[in-house]
Input
Amino acid sequence: MKRFTQKHADLKRLRHVTQVLIKHGFGYLVQQVFAHDHFFSRQLRRWKLVTRVLNPPDPSISLGERLRTVMEELGPTYIKLGQILSTRPDLIPIEICEELGKLQDSVPSIPYEKIVPQFKQAFGKKPEELFTVFHHEPIGAASLAQVHTAVLPDGTEVIVKVQRPGIEEVIGSDIGLLRQIADLTNRHMPGLRAYDLPGVVEQFAKTVAREIDFDVEARSIDTFRKNFKNHPHVYIPRVFHEFSAERILTLEQLHGQKLRTFISTETSIQRKKRIARYGARAVLQQVFIHGFFHADPHPGNVFVLKDDTIGFVDFGMIGRLNPQLRSIVGDMLVGLVDHDIDRLIETYRKLNMINDSIDIHKFKSDMEEFIDQYYEIPVSQIRMDKVLMNALILIRTYDIRVPRELYLMIKTMIIAEGIAHQLDPQFDMIAQTKPFAARMIRQRYHPSAIMNYTKKMTHELFELISIAPKELKQILYMVRKGELKLEFEHYGLENLIHELDRSSNRIAFSLVIASLIVGSSLIMLTRTGPLYLGMPVLGLVGYILAAVMGFGLAWAILRSGKL
Output
């Protein structure tokens, strides 16, 4: 079994995480996950937290609120984890997803002197030597980075995003701790194995690694800029690569109003309707046409520029729909429009979304009921965000495994429609979606797309035909030689093995004690060797050793709580 690292810094962090969990009523989880880990159990006793583990939570605070507070209190890694979990209603209930979506990634800024080394390491210069003007006070600070305004030598006004020093080490340490917690949870809570928590942590580690590498974000911005080149209503800021590095990102500064501010601005209804339409279309184009979309288009990441152009910023969280996923989405849309439940179910099968244990007839019946409730309603009266949320509830009911990218797409669409309705209460998202979905489906059945698909399938077929005889021959040869082996991996036996090992140790210990008692008794009867108070010294020593070992064994059994 993997053990918790005993480095002082990691132990200190582990203690803090444990204290925060217990403080907010999650002591029962601490007990369930770590009860079988001797190292952690010792630490709980050492930290004097054992009696606090079962403290009941405050009933006036919901589970989602308590979890959000824990994430905010534990800092950047856990805030990011919470934000990612908010897009995974397959793992946690939807009401908790919504609560985690409120996570505030806002922290005090760090002094200018502490970010100077980042510039020296990347460029060999201080900010003042690199830029004509560099404002020391940041205009915004988050857990991973803070943002300063500056002016390039050619007079261009820019935004400079600087990573917080030491954040990589903090995140690395936290992810190491999360890996061990996920591993222990997987071992000791069999009911959660279906959620593959170690896999979730690994996916989270990859996501965070991309977010803290500003080169990745710079390339994403370049892709967005290329996709919206010459677009009349969307503008993506330019990246200045010569002033950017892995931990520093320099972008063109957008001059306009943040959408958050614009929503509450006194302006004409027609203008707000126009902005709602432009913003929604920008998101829909990203999702259905480009397959590369901004996965966090909340009002703080969208600007209203001059001529009512929409500007996007903060491209740390990006969603991708590859051609296969876009094709699947097309199948889903066709199935919904045609009321073809069988087609929808077959689409889910293609993505390995349906569990073998599912009651397919009941699922089909519930799908029909779900679609029927919207089928007779005029499209203009249907809220897409409500449809998507109800779909998520159905998905969770049947434990359907949906790819993370599709969840990101759903979350993005829900955010986009929510913002559009704040600007225009009569906004019809489905009407705006139709032309983009139709275009995506047309692209799928375009002759060139069919030709490319045919080429790909032909290539794979010939490849299969070429390797199949050789592979089959190898299998038959191994069968004939008796070398074909089947490997089975058992889950859940680790605890049994551990208990057997502990029981055998106790039995061996008991036999040693019994032997000491019997041997000492025989010596007492024979009265051989040196005497003390008329009794053999060897016999007395044997009795004393047996007593000490016996008390030690009894104490260990009582402390474990298993008589």
Residues 1-6 have pLDDT under 50 and may be disordered. The two ends are 24 Å apart (CA to CA).
